[in-house]
Write a structure and sequence with these properties.
Blueprint (H helix, E strand, L loop, with lengths): L11 H13 L3 H14 L4 H13 L3 H14 L4 H13 L3 H14 L4 H13 L3 H14 L4 H13 L4 H14 L4 H15 L1
Helix pairs in contact: 1-2, 1-3, 2-3, 3-4, 3-5, 4-5, 5-6, 6-7, 7-8, 8-9, 9-10, 10-11
C-alpha cells in the first residue's frame, strides 16, 4: 500500500513516478493506487490515465484499460501512446475495425509518430490491406530510420505478398546494418536472398 510511503510534495507527477516504479516491479495494486492518487490531485493529468491503462491491460481488465486510454486521449490527443494502447485493447477484444479507426485518428492527431504508423501498418496487414500496410511501414521508416521492426515487416510484405523480392533484400540489408547482432534480421535476409537467388 502506498499510504505508508513518504511523498515530500503531493504532486501528480510524483505519484505517477511511484506508480510506474510499482508497475515495473509487478506490484500492480499499488501502481493503480498511485495513479488514482495522481488523478485525484489533478483530474486532467493524462500521463496517469495512460499508465493506469497499461496496468489495467497487464491485469487483464480490458474495459478499464480502454476507459483509461480514452480519457488520456481526450485530455492529450496528440500523444501517440494512449492511442496505440487503446488500439491494442480493442484488437484483443476482437474489435479490429475500431482498433484501425483509433489508429487512423491517431495518425491525424500525431502525424509525425513513427509508432502510430507502425501500429497502423500492423492493423492494416491483419485486415489484408497490403498496399496500405506497406505504405504505413514505409512512413514509419521515414519518421524513424532506426526502427528495425519496420524494415522487417515491410520486407516480409514485399517478399511474400507484394512480389517485390529485390525491395525485401534491400530493406533487410539496411536493417542488418542498423542491427548487425539481430539474429532475426540475419535469418530473414538469408531467407530473402535464397528466394531471390534461387
Amino acid at each position: 500500500m502506498i499510504q505508508g510511503s513518504v511523498v515530500k510534495r503531493e504532486s501528480p507527477s510524483s505519484y505517477n513516478r511511484i506508480g510506474m516504479a510499482f508497475g515495473q516491479r509487478g506490484r500492480f495494486v499499488e501502481a493503480v493506487e498511485a495513479f488514482e492518487r495522481a488523478i485525484e490531485i489533478k483530474p486532467d493529468y493524462a500521463p496517469a490515465y495512460h499508465n493506469l491503462g497499461l496496468v489495467w491491460w497487464k491485469l487483464g481488465q480490458l474495459d478499464r484499460a480502454a476507459a483509461s486510454y480514452r480519457k488520456a486521449i481526450d485530455i492529450e490527443p496528440t500523444n501517440d501512446e494512449p492511442h496505440c494502447g487503446l488500439a491494442r485493447v480493442l484488437a484483443r477484444q476482437g474489435s479490429h475495425d475500431d482498433a484501425r479507426a483509433v489508429l487512423h485518428n491517431a495518425a491525424a492527431c500525431a502525424p509525425r509518430s513513427a509508432k502510430v504508423q507502425f501500429n497502423l501498418g500492423g492493423a492494416l496487414e491483419r485486415s489484408l490491406e497490403w498496399d496500405e500496410a506497406a505504405a504505413c511501414y514505409l512512413r514509419s521508416i521515414e519518421l524513424n530510420p532506426l526502427h528495425v521492426e519496420s524494415y522487417t515487416r515491410l520486407a516480409r510484405l514485399s517478399l511474400f505478398i507484394l512480389d517485390r523480392p529485390d525491395e525485401a533484400v534491400a530493406l533487410l540489408t539496411t536493417a542488418s546494418g542498423i542491427a548487425p547482432e539481430d539474429d532475426r534480421v540475419r535469418r530473414a535476409l538469408d531467407e530473402a536472398l535464397e528466394l531471390v537467388v534461387g
